[in-house]
């Protein structure tokens, strides 16, 4: 019985799944005129796939890499391809750090580069 009781906290923590899996919301860009962000990421057991700002002008996540070497703050690089206002392909590169890894409402913050525009971003897992 003691073993069952001790195993319960680790089983509950395992239910969260991959730290990036889920829906995220936030913003990026200059503080005086930020752009709203919605990010849906899915973990299939091997890779992370996703969509930035789901809808007609969605950007598709092409690659996600995570540096697990620092367990208190994982470095995350996300690469995606979207379209600008004229419909031309635009590259999106996100470099961030995952915070509050043990909590459900994690935070991902860092630098967002979309085409030639660069700014800071903050996303919270919903």
Keywords:
126 residues, mainly beta, eight-stranded antiparallel barrel, 10% helix, globular
Write up what this structure looks like.
- The chain has 126 residues and is mainly β.
- The chain contains 1 helix and 8 strands; from the N terminus they run αββββββββ.
- The N terminus is likely disordered.
List the helices and strands and how they pair.
Layout: H1 2-14, E1 22-28, E2 35-43, E3 48-52, E4 59-67, E5 74-83, E6 89-99, E7 107-114, E8 117-125
Antiparallel strand pairs: 1-2, 1-8, 2-3, 3-4, 4-5, 5-6, 6-7, 7-8
Average pLDDT number: 86
The rounded distance between the terminal residues' Cα atoms is 35 Å
Instruction: Show unreliable segments.
Output: 1-15
Helix/strand/pairing category: mainly beta
Total helices: the number is: 1
Summarize the amount of helix as a percent range: 10-25%
Q: Estimate what percentage of residues fall within beta strands.
A: over 45%
Q: Would you count the extended β strands for me?
A: 8
- The whole-angstrom Rg is 16 Å
Outline type? globular
Strand order of the largest sheet: 1-2-3-4-5-6-7-8
Biggest sheet layout: 8 strands, antiparallel, barrel
Order of helices and strands: HEEEEEEEE
């Amino acid at each position: 019985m003691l073993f069952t009781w001790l195993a319960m906290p680790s089983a509950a923590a395992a239910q969260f799944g991959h730290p990036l899996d889920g829906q995220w919301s936030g913003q990026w860009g200059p503080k005086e005129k930020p752009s709203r962000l919605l990010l849906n990421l899915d973990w299939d057991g091997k890779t992370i796939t996703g969509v930035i700002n789901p809808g007609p002008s969605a950007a598709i996540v092409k690659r996600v890499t995570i540096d697990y070497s620092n367990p208190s703050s994982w470095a995350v690089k996300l690469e995606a391809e979207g379209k600008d206002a004229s419909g031309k392909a635009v590259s999106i590169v996100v470099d961030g750090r995952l915070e509050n890894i043990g909590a459900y409402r994690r935070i991902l913050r860092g630098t967002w580069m979309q085409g030639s525009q660069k700014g800071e971003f903050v996303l919270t897992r919903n």
